[in-house]
Amino acid sequence: MKDRDQLIQSAPESRLPARRTEAYSPSLPVISYGEPEDVNGVPLREYWRAVLKHRWLIIGITFLVTMLTAIHMARKPDIYEARARVQVNLENNPAFGGSKDGTVFINSGVPDPAYFSSQLQILTSSSLLQRVVSTLNLDSDVAFLKPQKLSAQQNLLRMFGLGGKEISAKSQNAEESPFPSSIAPATPKDNLAEAKRLAPYVGLLQGGLEIYRVKDSRLIDLRFRHLDPRVAAKVVNALAAVFVLSNVETKTAATEAAGDFIQRRVAELQQQIRADEKQLADYAQSNGVISLDPAENTVVARLAGLNAELLAAENDRKLAEAEYRVSLEADAAEVLATSNSAQTAAAEAQLAGLRQKRAQLLFENTEEWWEVKEVDQQIAYIEKQVKEVREKAMATFKIHLTTRYRKAQAREQSLREDFNQQRSETVSQNVAAINYRIMQQGIATKNTLLSGLLQRANENVIAMAGLTGTPNNIHVLDYALVPGGPVEPNRLPSVGAAFLLSLAFGVGLALFLHYLDDSVHSTGEVERILRLPVLGAIPLLGASTRRRLLPAIGALQKRNENGNGRPFPFLANENARSPLAEAYRHLRTSVLMSTAGHVPKTILVTSSQPAEGKTTTAVNTALALAQTGASVLIIDADMRHPCVNRIFSLNNDDGLSTYLSSGMGEAELFALIEKRNEDGGVCVLTSGPVPPNPAELLGSEQMRRLLTYTEAHFTHIVIDSPPISHFTDGVLVSLLVDGVLLVVHSEKSSREIVRHARNVLQDVGAKIFGVVLNGVKPGSSDYYYYSRYS
After folding, report:
1. Which residues of the chain have pLDDT under 50?
2. What domains does the chain contain, in order, with CATH numbers?
3. Is residue 607 a contact partner of residue 727, using CB atoms and an 8 Å limit?
4. How many other β-carbons are positioned within 10 Å of the β-carbon of residue 232?
5. Of 92, 135, 126, which Cα lies nearest the Cα of 209?
6. Bond preceding residue 200 cis, omega within 30 of 0
7. Are 224 and 210 in contact (CB under 8 A)?
8. pTM, whole model, 2 decimals?
9. Percentage of residues in the chain with pLDDT exceeding 90?
C-alpha cells in the first residue's frame, strides 16, 4: 500500500485541494446554459407555465365563483319593467290672456327647469301615489302584494335555455286591460287616517318607481318595476292617467278661481269708470272746457288775431318812429317837406326859367339893362315866395310826422295789453284741457282693461261650460304595454361576467403565486439561473412508485410487493423502459461524458437544502452505472442524516464514521464495505454511527486514504453528502472528487439557495459536472428532457 503522499500525488487532479480552479465547459453540445437570468422580467413562457402549474387552482376558483354566481342569480326573482311616456308642454291658462293667434302662455316660452323639476316631484309625491293605490285597489291586490315567483331550479334551467316556464297569469284575468277604467278621487288632505293606511303601499310604489326626464325635450319617462308584468303595466298607466287628470283638475280649479277674480275685477272697474266719468263732466263744467279741438276754441282763435294785429301795429309804430327821427334833422326835414310840396315844385320850375332868361339877357346886355333888372326883380319875388312856402311846408310836415308816431305808439300799447290778457286766459284754459285729457285717458285705459276682462270672462265661461274643454299642457304620449320579458336579473351576462372575472382573478392569483414562488421549475430556468448544464431531468413519482423506490424515506415501514419483506431500490425493481429508468440512464450517459478523455471516477452528489432527492439520485445513479458492468461503490457521507443504510436495509453500527475516526487500514476499510449482488452488484459503505464532528472527519487525511484505497478497486465511487447550504461537509468532500452533481428539486428548491450553493462550490474551486433536476412532473416539457441529449 502506498503512503498518503504517494496516494495524493497519484490521485486525479480533481481530488486535490490545491487543484486549479477553472470554469466548467460541458462536453455535450446539445446542452445549453441559457441566457443570463433577467431579474427584472419573466419570459412569456414562464407565465404559461405558471398558469399550467396552478391550473387546478384557476379551475377551482372559476368553477366555484361561477356556480355561486349562477345560484345567486337563480335565487333572484324576475323583475319586469313597464314604461310610459308623458309630454309636459308650457303651462297656460285661457283665463289669464289670449290673442287672435292662440293661447297666451303664462311664462315666456323658455323651458323652466324648476317647473319640470316640480313635475318630477309631483309624480313621486305621496298624494298622487295614494290616488294610484285607490284607483287600482292595490291594498287588496294579491298580484301586487304577493306575486308569483319561479323557483331557483326553474330559473337555473331557463338561464341555460333548458326549459322552465314563465309566470302564470292564472290568478289574474289574462284578458284584463292594463289601462285603468276609472280614476279614483283624490284623498282629502285632511284625511290623515286614510293617508296613514295607504302609506305602506305608497312606499312599495315608490320603491319600484323611476322617473326620468328625456334630455333636451319636454318628455318624462315613467318606469315601474314589479315581479308581475301585468301589475307593472297597470301601475305605470294608472300613474300617467292620474297625473294627467290631476293636472286637469288643478287647471280647472285655477280656471274657476281666475273666473271669480275676473268677475270681481269687472265689477270694480265698472264702478270706477262711472265715478271717473262723472268727475270728468264736473271738471269740464267748472273749468269751461267745451272742446279740445283748436279749430273750435274761440279763446285760442282770438289770441291768434290779437297776435297778428300786434305784429302789424309794431311795424307801423317802427315806421312812424323812423320818419319822426329823420324829421328832427334840419336838412332832412326841409328836403322831405319840399319834396312833398307841389307848390314849391312849381315855384322852383318858374325860378329856373327866369334864371335861364336872365342868363340869356346878360349874354347880350349888362346888368343895368332894364330887362335884366325886371328879371332880377321877378327872381327875387319868386325866391321869397319859395322860402315862405318851404318854411310853411316844413312846419306842417313835422306836425304830421309827430301826430302819426304818437298814434302808432298808442295803438301798439293798446293791442299789447289786449294780447297779454288773452294769453293769460288761454294758458288757464290749456291747463284745464290737459287735466281734462288726463282724466279722459284714465277712463279710456280702464275701459280697455274692462273690455279685455269681459272677453276673458266670456272665454272662461265657454271653457267651464265644456264647449272647448279646459286646456291641459300634460298629455300621455305612450301608454305602457305588458312587458314581454324581465329586465332583471341579467342572469346569463352576470354568470358570464363572473366566469371571466373569476378566470382573470385565478390567472392573476396564479401569476402572483408564481411571482412569490422562489423555486425553480424547469431545466431552462435552472440553466438561466445557475449558468450550469442540466445533465438529467428526473420525473416525479407517484405514491406507489415512491414506496417501491425509497421505502425507507417515503414510507419507512412500507415494503414492496415482492413479498420477501425487504425493500429494493427502484432501478433494481422497475421496468427497464419506464420513464424513470430512461431518465437515470440518460443521467448516467451525461455523467460519463462530462469529462474529456476519461470517465469520472469519484462523483459527489449533493444539494442546496434537504429533501431535494440527493440520496435517491446518488443511489439510482450508482445503480445505473452498475448496469453497465462497472464496479460501483456508494459511500453515505451524510453522517448527520444517514439514509443509504435504510434504503438497502443494512446495519449501520459500523461505517464511514468508524473508519474516519480510527486508524484503520485498507483491509479494515473493505471489511466495512458490503456488496449488494441482489441490487445490481453495487457496494455500499454506510455512514456509521453519527459522530460529533462530521466536517472534521470528512476533511481529514483518512478521507483521502479512503478514496485512494477505493479508487483502485472500483470503477466509480458515488458519494452522498449533506446539503451545501446547511453544512460544510459537502464542500470539503467536493475538493477530493472528480466532480459534483448538484441536485435541484423542481418547484421546491429556492433560486437564491441554489445560486448560493453553486457560488460556494465555485468559490472553493470545486468542479461541477452539472445539475440534476429532480421531481419533474409528468406531462411537462422537461419530463422527456433526456430525449434532448439522445
Report:
1. 1-32, 39-40, 95-96, 98-109, 168-173, 467-468, 543-569, 785-790
2. 79-98+105-151+187-258+469-488 (3.30.1890), 522-789 (3.40.50.300)
3. no
4. 27
5. 126
6. no
7. yes
8. 0.54
9. 28
